[in-house]
Write a structure and sequence with these properties.
binds adenosine-5'-triphosphate; 357 residues; ABC transporter ATP-binding protein; OB fold (Dihydrolipoamide Acetyltransferase, E2P); P-loop_NTPase; 8 helices; ATP binding; alpha+beta; iron; 2 domains; ABC_transporter-like_CS; Rossmann fold; 6-stranded mixed beta sheet
């Protein structure tokens, strides 16, 4: 059986601001999530991710701004009339109800225009979404008999069941162990794409955000710092803070002079011409470290082997810097060796106070 694909809702946040008591924790959010798009909101703990999700779901009021779904304003509506599905962290299923009854829970026709009036219609819809998540044969079981990953698929089916076309996911994989997390994450992404739903997933896990989203919105201290594709966010972060949230970085103080910047490892190409003092930034895999003869610009002062990469501390022009870079071909470095760092791709330059060496 194939599941009817419903067009995902278009979600718009316009100047959305909210907080607790007199304290504003998210401010002035402007964002459009397109139909069928998967957006991840990435932020450190306390940056306001859950607050944003709760405001969209209708579980927390906005203090200013508007939230629209398909052009219709929903922020004045109670949660049950917004038609938005929510997949919370693990533990959200009713343990005393079967899988099917958990999924059917949201199909109660509280709204006079609800489509799921008859018992037969509701049962058919439950079957349909359980087919989608691959658990139709477990419909009569209690959730406790399912694995953590299967339980999260039931939670997803429950969120999809009313056919809202807009699904919010609040750190939905955080309670799963590391081995299971990657697999369930990939499954849920595929299921969401197949359902055609628009989704907003909040996470503090950068790999989760980069791997699952069409675009990632980075939230820093309650403000959107960058909304971009995973690739652009990773390789073209707009600030050092965004860069560090999106992955490991190597930073060096630099003076930009057009298409190059002068650094302690020499003149390096920039991806965008700039002028003035600031910081250059690469992802570790964009640099390579080699042993060289006497002409090397650095001396290795420390080596820490951590498997896929090696942390190399080196002294260049009297200053010590650390580079955690992948070392190819099992090359061995020892303290005292002359080494050279070569960029494999142009650096990103950010003007402003440079990083401490
Ligand atoms: N019910 C509440 N009452 C008062 N302050 C709150 C409440 N809930 C959250 N906060 C505060 O709002 C800020 C944002 O919290 P929020 O839970 O939205 O962040 P988060 O990014 O989801 O964090 P985490 O990743 O740790 O869940 C934090 O400073 C938090 O202490």
């Amino acid at each position: 059986m194939t599941v009817r694909k419903r067009p995902g809702g278009v979600l718009e946040l316009r100047g959305v601001t909210g907080g607790y008591g007199g304290t504003t924790v998210v401010r002035d959010l402007d964002l459009t999530v397109g139909s069928g798009e998967a957006l991840a909101v990435l932020g450190a703990s306390g940056s306001g991710k859950t607050t944003v999700l709760r405001m969209i779901a209708g579980l927390h009021p906005v203090s200013a701004g508007r939230i629209l779904v398909d052009g219709r304003r929903v922020d004045p509506l109670p949660a049950q009339h917004r038609g938005i599905g929510l997949v919370p962290q693990q533990g959200a299923l009713f343990p005393h109800l079967s899988v099917a009854r958990n999924v059917g829970f949201g199909l109660v026709p509280v709204d006079p225009v609800a489509r799921w009036r008859s018992r037969a219609e509701r049962a058919a819809r439950v079957r349909e979404v359980l087919e989608l998540v691959g658990l139709a044969d477990r419909a009569d079981e209690r959730p406790s008999r399912l694995s953590g990953g299967q339980q999260q698929r039931v939670a997803l089916a429950r969120a999809l069941a009313p056919g809202s076309g807009l699904i919010l996911l609040d750190e939905p994989f955080s309670a799963l162990d590391a081995a299971l997390r990657g697999r369930v994450r990939a499954e849920v992404s595929t299921l969401l794409a197949e359902s055609g739903a628009t989704s907003v997933l909040v996470t503090h896990d950068r790999a989760e955000a980069l791997a699952t989203a069409d675009r990632v919105a980075v939230l820093i201290d309650g403000r959107l710092a960058q909304v971009d594709t995973p690739e652009r966010l990773y390789y073209h972060p707009v600030s050092r803070e965004v860069a560090q949230l999106a992955g490991e970085v190597v930073l060096l103080p630099a003076t930009a002079d057009g298409g190059v910047a002068h650094t302690t490892i020499g003149a390096v190409p920039l991806d965008t011409p700039a002028r003035g003092s600031g910081t250059v930034l690469w992802r570790p895999e964009s640099l390579t470290v080699r042993r060289v003869g006497q002409e090397g610009h650095g001396v290795c002062t420390g080596v820490e082997f951590v498997g896929a990469s090696t942390l190399i501390r080196m002294c260049v022009d009297g200053t010590e810097q650390s580079f955690a870079v992948p070392v190819s071909g099992g090359e061995v470095f020892e303290v005292g060796a002359r080494v050279e760092v070569t960029p494999l791709r142009p650096a990103v330059f950010h003007a402003g106070p440079s990083v401490p060496a």
